[in-house]
Structures are given as structure tokens and as C-alpha cells.
Design a protein that fits this description.
With about 350 residues, this protein is mainly alpha-helical. It has helices at about 5-25, 30-35, 40-50, 55-70, 80-105, 110-115, 125-135, 145-155, 155-160, 165-180, 190-205, 205-210, 215-235, 245-265, 280-300, 305-335, 335-340. About 35% of the residues are buried.
Amino acid sequence: MEEREFRSKVYWLTFIFSVLVIWVHSGNAELFLGPGAGSSWVGNMEAFLGSGLGQFAVPGFFAVSAYLFCRFFSLSDLGRKWKSRVRSLLLPYLLWNFLYYAGYVAVTRIPAVTSVVGKPPVPVSGEECVRAIFFYTYNPVFWYLFQLILLTALVPILYALLKHVWSGAVFLVLLAVFLGTNRNFPVLNGDALLYCRVGAFAAFHARSRIEGVVPLHRGAFWAAGLAAVLGWIYLMGRPGGFLYGSALHLVLLRLGGVCAAVLAVKLFPFPPAPEFMKNNFFLYAMHFAWVRLLNKTAALWLPAVPGAALGTFLVMPFLIVCLCTGFEKLGKRFCPGIYGLLSGGR
């Protein structure tokens, strides 16, 4: 696979994950239809896309980020890689967290929009500002970026464990067993560590398979094998299965969903990714507040009927992508420096 085609497929993959993330946060059945509507057919359909398929999205981001970081990686690259991640991860993380905090401080004090926001006035203090900036208090979706920054800092240790096939495989198995006993690390999410290390392991030891050309019949064989494995994992999570009640069951299903998405993008002849798909970081960073605002505004103005709720839910990714593309064009034209910080230089 040529580099241009590879990058295009990465853009498609991360855009698909971005759409799923938007649906994760777009559930609105109870907002439109009242308490209990989450168990209605509208709520169930939204849950299938958001709480179901949407659960593959963030694990996919972890795996893809780790794969790209470790592709062609050696320890001599570490300083350069860390320096680039300061611009692409750390600075945007701090800036977006501050903007979310400042935004909530402002809108919770404007009477005209307080009813839409639905929050009491946000405290203004140095302590609250520090909590917001460093620990994403008002930007909950950035838990992902917080974990990714921690994992990036741990690269030298993880590289030593993963650079050899057998030590890497043993590490992944031991981590899976650790998660299977429903344990976790302080601060660091064990499942995020697993998703990232699978992506890194693939970059170190399976890059030719992942990026190589696969005949259709072999791809169909891989798809059938993956479906069989996922079916077995699902059954093992049922009562009586050895994964029943274990966090590892859900982690493995999510990881299998990521593998299915990667395989689909690899096998199908996707056209070159258009420009609006190439800044999924900016889309991820800005979507949460706008999803909440659009949902609450729609619930105030549209009739409280199932069609309005489901329609708003389904078109939400389109609306957010349009908004993101508009802000991107305005930012690049009128304040490219600030936009570059917000987009991580992408």
C-alpha cells in the first residue's frame, strides 16, 4: 500500500470513529420524550448506535494513535516524537480545557442561555481553573487525551516490553489477565493501555500485514475468522462463560470491533479522503459542547415526538461536521496561529 493510500485510509478510519463518538454523546430520547423514553424503540435505536457501535470509537483512537506513533519507531526518535506530541497533544489539551472552563463560566451567568445549558454558575477561582485545565473537569471527553498523554510519556518502558515478539505477547497476555480480574492501575486506565499496546505491537511486528495488499478471498477468510472469534468472546461473557462478570469481556469485544473497522477500511476500495475528514482531532475536541447545545435547543423548539428525537440524533454528526468545517475555514483564514494550537498543528 502506498503511503498516500495508507494515510487516506487512516483518515477514513478516524472519521468513522469520530462519527460514532458524536453518536455516543447525542442520545436524546429522554430529553425529547421524558423520563423512561430511554427504553422505548427510539432509545433502543439510539443506544445501538451510541452505546453499542459507538463503544468501538475511543478504543480505535487509542489503537490508531499508538500504531502511528510506533510506526518506524526507534529510541533515537523519542525526543523528536515527544516534542511533536507537545504541540499535537499537550498544548491543545490544556487550551481546550481552559476554553471549556471559560465557556461554562460565561454561559452559566447569561440568563438567556442558562435554561438551555442547565448548569448552576461555575465557580471562578484559581483552584477551579487549575482543576479544569489539568484534569478536564468541564471537558469530560478529554479523559481520552489525558490517558494518551500518560501513555506517550511511558513509551520508553513500553517499547522495551514490546520490541520483541515474545516479550510483547507475554506482556499483552498478562495485561489481559490483570483486566480479567477487574483490577486497574492508579490514574492510568488499564483498558486504554491494552488498546494502545495492541496498536503498538501491530506497528512493531505486523506492519507488512496491516499495510500490505490482501486478496479478496484472504480478506473474506480473515473476516470470517474475526466474526467467529467475536462470537466466541460474546458467548464467553454470558452466564456460565469464563468471562462472565469480567471487565475483560467488554474490552475484548471493543478491541474486536476496532479490528473489524480496520479490516473493512483495508479491504474496501474507499475513495481518497476529502479535506473535511483530515482534522478529526478538532472535530473530537469541539463536538461535545455543540452536541449538548444543539440537542437542548432542538428539544425546546421541535415537537416532543419520536421522529424529532431520532431525526435530531441521526443528523447530529452531519451538523457537527458542518460546524467543524466552517470553524476550520474561518480559523485558517483569520487566526491561523490560534487555530493551529487548537487543532494540534493538523
